[in-house]
Amino acid sequence: NDVGEVGAKNLAKHFKSIDRLINASFEELLLVKDVGNTTAKNIIDFFKNESNRLIIDRLRDFLIFNLEENENKSNKLNELTFVYSGTFEIEREELKKIIEENGGKVASSLSKNTSYLIVGENMGPSKKEKALKDNINMITLDQFYNLIR
Questions:
Q1: pTM
Q2: pLDDT in tens, 55-104
Q3: What is the spatial distance between Cα 31 and Cα 77, in angstroms, rounded to a whole number?
Q4: Less Cβ crowding at N or C end of the chain, within 10 Å?
């Protein structure tokens, strides 16, 4: 269901087990690289289908997410969730990679679970207003780098 080889690898790396993938929420699926709303909905619908679940149960012993484990550079950002807004001196994908390599998570929108909003140039006013309203820490890219040093 519109998940190709690269998408399947991203899902396997992120969830590390078939059961975690099966039980993933829509929001958790959106945290996976290249998974958007349509793909997340299709994945959830796939696992809701009883015949698909029966096939998975029969194949369970063969469904091993055997990927080389990329060791995190650090765990300095464990339990922290980041949202970024605006433009930065580095690509957004690179910023996401740095966050994940140090144990953090990236979300696309602010929520009560957001630890930090990384503020770039030309950030839209709506995220700033929400961050202020919800008491979310706003930091610059330099301040972010200080978190992982």
A1: 0.55
A2: 888 887 666 555 445 556 788 999 899 999 999 999 998 999 899 889 89
A3: 16
A4: C
Query: Which amino acid type is present at position 108?
Result: S
Q: How far apart are CA 2 and CA 88, in angstroms?
A: 31
Q: Which two tokens stand for residue 75?
A: 């765990």
Cα separation of 3 and 22, whole Å?
A: 14
Question: Which of 96, 70, 77 lies closest to 9 in space, CA to CA?
Answer: 70
CA dihedral angle for residue 82, residue 70, residue 15, residue 147, rounded to 10 degrees? -20
> Residue 39: CB partners within 8 Å, gap ≥ 6?
1, 2, 3, 7, 29
CB atoms within 10 A of CB 13: 16
Selection from 30, 83, 99, 72 nearest residue 11 by Cα:
30
Which has more confidence, 133 or 16?
133
